[in-house]
Each structure stands twice: as C-alpha cells, then as structure tokens.
C-alpha cells in the first residue's frame, strides 16, 4: 500500500476556457494537518483550481490527488473531502436545521445522529440559537457561517474554504479564524483569500498564483524570516540615546520611527520598524531588544513580524504602487485596497 506523504498533490494542472488559459501547469503539494493558503490577484485561477480539486471542473491536463486518491474517482473521497464555495447556496424557505440534517442523512447518518452533530456544529459557528429559522431570514454574515458549518459536517480530513471570512464583521471573522485553527488538530484546511494579513496569521504554508501560473509555493515562516522586519509598539517614544542603544545590539540593522503620539510630559505611544540581519538566531535578537526596552522602563505593547507576506506577494505578482499592472487588468486586493 502506497504511503500518503501529502494531504493534497497538485501535479501539472492546466485548464483553458476557449482561448483563455486559466491555469498553466500548476504543481505543488499540501502537507497534512496544515492550514494552507491559496493566494493570487483577481483572475489568477484560485477558484478554478478549487473547482478542479473538488472535481466540479475537469482539467485539460494534470492530476489532483487528495489523501492519495485521484479526484477523478471523487466517489472514493465521500465524507473525507469537503468544500465551502465562496457563494454557497441554500434553500431560502427551509429551516437551517432541516437542511443540514438532510445532508447528513444522505451520508448515512441516522436522524438522531444527524441532529446531534448538526446542533454541535451550529454551536461551533454561533448559530445554535437560530437553528429553526429559515435561511431567508439570515444576514449575509450568518449565511457565511452556515456555509462553513456545512463544510465542517462529517469530520472531513481535507476542507477547502473559498474566501471564508469575506463580508464578515470583525468579530465574526475572528471567530471563524479561531475555528479554523482548532480544526487543524485533525484536518488539513486549504484557504483561498485576498486578505494577506489574515493568511499570514492563519497559514503555515502558501501557494501564490498569478495569471494562471504558480509563482511561489512554500512555508510562511520561510518568507517572514527572510524578510527580517518587525513592528514594535511602545508605551512612549524612544529618546536618541535609547535608539542608539538598541541599534548597537548585535543583529539589529536599522530602527525607523513609524508613528509617535506624545503629551506635554513626553509620554504616549510610538511605533518602530526594526530590521534585523539574516541570522538564524532571530529569536535571540528579539529577546535582547525586548529585554533592553524593559530595562529602559518602557512597556512593549506589541512586537510582530512586518507584513512580509504582503511584500513578497507584491514582489512576485507585480507592485501596483509602481504602476505595474498585468495583462488583463488584474487587480490586487491587499487589506488597504479592500478597506
């Protein structure tokens, strides 16, 4: 019996619609129990690839294997692979509970088992109190959470989530991200999203598509560590001598002030961009910075890696700030352009 090394294997996938090549020899692997981000500008081919993985569309060339099974034999993955489309549809006049129970009955559950599992899943996404309401009475955000609940049913081993937090308010989006993180303990999750900050927070691996071609595949850690930039928020601005003290630390290349708010007593808050050298010992450098900040009597309020995933994305797909637009007029949606 062949050992399955990857949860999903994309091998040489190509797909054309007439004269338009949506995907061009795309190849990458998704590690098991990972949260894998699929990124790309509009029209990059993300939804097309999701549809091929789920066997909604047929590729012109290449193969997809999920859990070692060719998805052309999709029936062998029943109950093991689940997908949440970006615009999941439900019967508007049928209660939530009835619709989800019906899906579980189709998979062979008894009604008692189905109702118990559905209520547990609705509680997971915060919809247990509206289980008997018709879908047509729900808000957009609630319908989005309902679609995610459907994808979670049956304890699938691989879940595809297409824009799972799009259109949600911040509290609901935060709740969905926490759910995805919890599911990683037993499930491989592939997330398609335009929100680069969200992907950097959620995912351990990413693949970036542009104009149907794969332009990057690898770990988020490899990208962020290669960037070596961190954002440091402090309880007050640094004095000149304090900046010099931090700049003299081994491994610190540069410190730039991003923003500062001061009062008449020279207190307030301040943010800095700190660049480190390309050392394998960045954790020790970060620890030294924080230790010195505390010795100065300053409270570090936040210390995070800079949005280097966004920087890498712009590098491999074209930086719109420099006026670089790709053929076909693809638009890049970063957190700023989505605001």
Mean pLDDT: 84
Query: How much helicity do the residues have?
Result: 25-40%
**Low-confidence parts, pLDDT < 50 over ≥5 residues?**
320-339
Rg, alpha carbons: 23 Å
Q: What structural category arises from helix and sheet content? A: alpha/beta
Strand content: 25-35%
Large-scale geometry: globular
Q: How does CATH name the architecture of the largest domain?
A: 3-Layer(aba) Sandwich
Q: How many beta strands in the DSSP annotation?
A: 14
Write down the domain tally: 2
CATH topology title of the largest domain:
Rossmann fold
Strand order of the largest sheet: 6-7-8-3-9-10
CATH H level of the largest domain: which superfamily?
P-loop containing nucleotide triphosphate hydrolases
Count of separate DSSP helical elements: 11
Detailed description of the structure:
The chain has 339 residues and is of the alpha/beta class. It folds into 2 domains: 8-224, P-loop containing nucleotide triphosphate hydrolases (Rossmann fold); 236-298, no CATH class. Helices cover 33% and strands 27% of the residues. The protein has 11 helices and 14 strands. The chain has helices at 46-53, 96-106, 111-124, 140-152, 170-183, 196-202, 220-227, 240-247, 282-295, 308-317, 335-338, and strands spanning 8-17, 20-30, 35-39, 61-66, 69-70, 81-84, 158-162, 188-192, 205-210, 213-219, 229-234, 252-262, 268-276, 300-305. A 6-stranded mixed beta sheet has the order 6-7-8-3-9-10, with helices on both faces. The chain has a 4-stranded antiparallel beta sheet with strand order 2-1-4-5, covered by helices on one side. Strands 12-13-11-14 form a 4-stranded antiparallel beta sheet. The longest helix has 14 residues, at 111-124. The chain starts with 7 loop residues before the first strand and ends with a helix.
């Amino acid at each position: 019996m062949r050992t399955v090394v990857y949860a999903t294997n994309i091998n040489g996938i190509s797909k054309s619609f007439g004269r338009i090549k949506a995907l061009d020899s795309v190849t990458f692997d998704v590690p098991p129990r990972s949260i894998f981000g699929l990124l790309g500008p509009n029209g990059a081919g993300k939804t097309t690839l999701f549809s091929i993985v789920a066997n909604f569309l047929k590729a012109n060339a290449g193969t997809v294997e999920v859990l070692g099974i060719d998805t052309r034999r999709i029936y062998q993955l029943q109950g093991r692979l689940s997908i949440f489309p970006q615009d999941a549809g439900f019967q508007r006049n049928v209660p939530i509970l009835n619709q989800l129970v019906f899906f579980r009955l189709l998979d062979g559950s008894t009604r008692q088992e189905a109702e118990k599992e559905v209520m547990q899943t609705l509680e997971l996404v915060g919809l247990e109190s509206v289980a008997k309401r018709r879908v047509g009475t729900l808000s957009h955000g609630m319908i989005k959470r309902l679609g995610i609940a459907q994808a979670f049913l049956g304890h699938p081993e691989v879940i595809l989530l297409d824009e799972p937090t799009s259109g949600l308010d911040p509290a609901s989006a935060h709740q969905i991200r926490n759910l995805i993180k919890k599911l990683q303990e037993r499930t491989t999750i592939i997330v398609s999203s335009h929100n680069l900050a969200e992907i950097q927070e959620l995912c351990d691996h990413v693949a970036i598509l542009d104009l149907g071609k794969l332009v990057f595949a690898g770990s988020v850690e490899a990208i962020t560590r290669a960037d070596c930039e961190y954002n440091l928020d402090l309880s007050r601005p640094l004095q000149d001598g304090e900046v010099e003290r931090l700049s003299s630390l081994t491994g610190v290349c540069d410190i730039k002030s991003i923003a500062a708010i001061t009062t008449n007593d020279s207190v307030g808050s301040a943010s800095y961009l700190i660049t480190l050298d390309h050392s394998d010992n960045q954790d020790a450098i970060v620890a030294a910075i924080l230790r010195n900040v505390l010795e100065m009597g300053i409270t570090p309020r936040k210390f995070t890696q800079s949005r280097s995933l966004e920087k890498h994305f712009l590098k491999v797909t074209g930086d719109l700030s420099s006026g670089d637009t790709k053929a076909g007029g693809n638009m890049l949606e970063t957190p700023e352009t989505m605001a």
